[in-house]
Design goal:
Blueprint: E1 3-5, H1 11-21, H2 30-36, E2 40-47, E3 50-60, E4 63-71, H3 80-95, E5 99-105, H4 109-118, E6 121-126, E7 137-143, H5 144-149
Parallel strand pairs: 4-5
Antiparallel strand pairs: 1-2, 2-3, 3-4, 5-7, 6-7
The structure holds coenzyme A (COA).
Coenzyme A is lined by residues 21-22, 69-71, 76-82, 104, 108-111, 113-114, 117.
């Protein structure tokens, strides 16, 4: 499946995907701002000319943070989430990333299962982190060396 850097023409589809995927969508303009952020790596996965998945990763030295990832509701459970995460992580590894972080809602079972497949482990909890429903955030980390040893 084609996975490539996000472009300005993707933004309407990416914003729509974000609104369909999150109860707290990113503000209008946030993805455009990330495309200008030198530490951000913004990716889309397309089928035909349809954006089916989007991901933003922040890279600083050997650390990378998955800021957001979403797959269109009609395209879920076909491995696209796994593919875009794998591609973004592989590119970050080439840049020098060795530790990956993310935050996920404590009740987001699909995302937790996906991250655990990659070897992410829960390392902390931010209580009542999400403003819409007061849900806790779980902090997850994957250390590359540990994965390689496994
Ligand atoms: C989480 C999300 C990105 C997964 O994308 P996806 O393309 O459906 O996931 P994949 O098909 O690649 O699934 C990979 C693995 O994730 C897990 N998974 C995905 N959806 C799941 C579900 N509904 N229930 C249980 N496990 C699920 C499974 O372990 C799956 O592996 P398997 O198919 O071998 O069983 C997608 O559900 C989504 O966009 N959700 C809304 C946004 C979101 O929550 N993003 C994460 C924020 S931290």
């Amino acid at each position: 499946m084609p996975i490539r850097p996000m472009t300005l023409t993707d933004l309407p589809a990416v914003n729509e995907l974000d609104r369909l995927s999150f109860s707290l969508a990113w503000p209008e303009g946030a993805f455009a701002a990330e495309m200008r952020n030198p530490n951000a790596r913004c990716w889309v996965l397309t089928e035909g000319n349809q954006v089916q998945a989007a991901l933003v990763l922040w890279c600083v030295l050997d650390e990378a943070h998955i800021a957001t990832v979403a797959v269109h509701p009609a395209a879920r459970r076909r491995g696209l989430g796994r593919q875009i995460i794998r591609a973004a992580m592989d590119a970050a590894i080439v840049e020098g990333a060795r530790i990956f972080h993310l935050e996920v809602r404590a009740g987001n079972d699909p995302a937790l299962a996906l991250y655990e497949q990659f070897g992410f482990e829960v390392v902390g909890r931010r209580e009542k982190y999400y403003m819409d429903n007061g849900e806790d955030a779980l902090l997850m980390t994957l250390r590359l060396e540990k994965t390689e040893e496994a």
